[in-house]
Design a protein that fits this description.
The complex is a heterodimer of chains A (111) and B (117).
Chain A (H helix, E strand, L loop, with lengths): L3 E3 L4 E4 L4 E7 L4 E9 L6 E7 L2 E5 L2 E6 L4 E6 L8 E9 L6 E2 L3 E6 L1
Parallel strand pairs in A: 2-11
Antiparallel strand pairs in A: 1-3, 3-8, 4-5, 4-9, 6-7, 7-8, 9-10, 9-11
Chain B lengths: L4 E3 L2 E4 L5 E6 L6 E7 L6 E7 L2 E4 L8 E5 L5 E5 L8 E8 L11 E2 L3 E5 L1
Parallel strand pairs in B: 2-11
Antiparallel strand pairs in B: 1-3, 3-8, 4-5, 4-9, 5-6, 7-8, 9-10, 9-11
The chains are: A mainly beta (111), B mainly beta (117).
Amino acid sequence: QKEVEQDPGPLSVPEGAIVSLNCTYSNSAFQYFMWYRQYSRKGPELLMYTYSSGNKEDGRFTAQVDKSSKYISLFIRDSQPSDSATYLCAMGTSSASKIIFGSGTRLSIRP
Amino acid sequence: EAGVAQSPRYKIIEKRQSVAFWCNPISGHATLYWYQQILGQGPKLLIQFQNNGVVDDSQLPKDRFSAERLKGVDSTLKIQPAKLEDSAVYLCASSSRRGEGTNEKLFFGSGTQLSVL
């Protein structure tokens, strides 16, 4: 079993829709949870950063962490064609420096 | 603020040849990472430096891969000899991590796309 599981998609939704992206994990020691966005031929860029459980909102983006279920989500409201990219979840522990990435979900927003 | 710089952007070589990638991190970032991203997969950590010392190289294939970070700034990653399965994007990232247990926010370069024929 992989430490971090992410549905690769692709996921295609119409402009303006609410998008839900998810990851599950197996290592209960993970405490830092990140979402990165990666455009084609570019490096990943950090979108959201959450410590432990709970919600975090930043503009149209909301990150949720449920440590009891080992499940994290990223919601995108009022999705735009410019949101079309691959979204990678990533996680780390407090005592180790290694960040583990999911395989990424390719998202396409149709105009 | 300038981002993480990597070169070259693309490289095509034949198997058994050698190749080197260069990375210049964000100024002041003590931690530097090399990741390998195979098509359709997430980045996999190859090696992590804190200043010019190696923190983690557990997933670096040391029989063919080597990396160094001179003077705690620039870094080079080398593959010798290359295999077909080394075809991937090699990403460099840096962070301003200040110590054990602190936040890790990685800033990535655009990567070097390597094709081994």
